[in-house]
Amino acid sequence: MTQAKFFPVAGCTGTDHRLAGDYHHRWMVIDAQGEWLTAQACPKLSEVTVDLKMGALVLRAPGMLRMDIPLDVIEDDDSVNRQATIAKQAVVVVDEGEVAAVWFSKALGQSCRFVKIHPDRKQPVWPQG
Fold first, then answer.
1. Inter-residue contact 97 to 70 (CB < 8 Å)
2. How far apart (Å, rounded) are the C-alpha atoms in residues 120 and 75?
3. I want to staple 5 with a disulfide (CB 3.0 to 4.6 A). Which of 14, 46, 47, 86 is the partner?
4. According to the model, what pLDDT value does residue 1 have?
5. How many angstroms separate the most distant Cα atoms in the chain?
């Protein structure tokens, strides 16, 4: 029996970790205009591996040190909220900060931000495929 793959970071590799379904499509990378970067638009996204360990989202990319992002943080600081777009849908996201933005910008070779879908706001409908 094969275990299902879940994609905590939309566009990056999936994981079959037993808790990954709880975090499916929780995070994404956006460009300078706030548009979701797909693996089709940015093929280097598919080189980023994702795992869950000890309460953290663990990210690895070729030539980069590992980066850990806490999984469950209470969203009580509105100053880190941003608007983003997923397939023409406006969504509220939480910016994961400068370290994550620099990590992804270097890993992908372009300026971008790492964000998560705000858990208390309307959830997007993700495109198929």
1. no
2. 8
3. 14
4. 47
5. 45
> Where are the strands (E) in the chain, listed by range?
27-30, 49-53, 56-60, 67-70, 81-86, 89-95, 113-117
Other beta carbons within 10 angstroms of residue 51's beta carbon come to 17
Per-residue tokens: 43: 């093929």
The residues with which 37 forms a beta bridge, in sequence order, are: none
So what's the pLDDT on residue 9? Answer: 97
Q: Can you tell me the distance from the alpha carbon of 52 to that of 48, in angstroms, rounded to the nearest whole number?
A: 13
pTM over 0.90: yes
Q: Tell me the backbone φ, ψ of residue 85, rounded to 5 degrees.
A: -130, 130
pLDDT at 113 over 90: yes
Helix (H, G, I), strand (E, B) or coil at 88: coil
Q: What is the pLDDT of residues 21-61, one digit of tens each?
A: 999 999 999 999 999 999 999 999 999 999 999 999 999 99
Helix/strand number for the chain, H first, E second: 1, 7
Tokens at residue 92, please?
């509220």
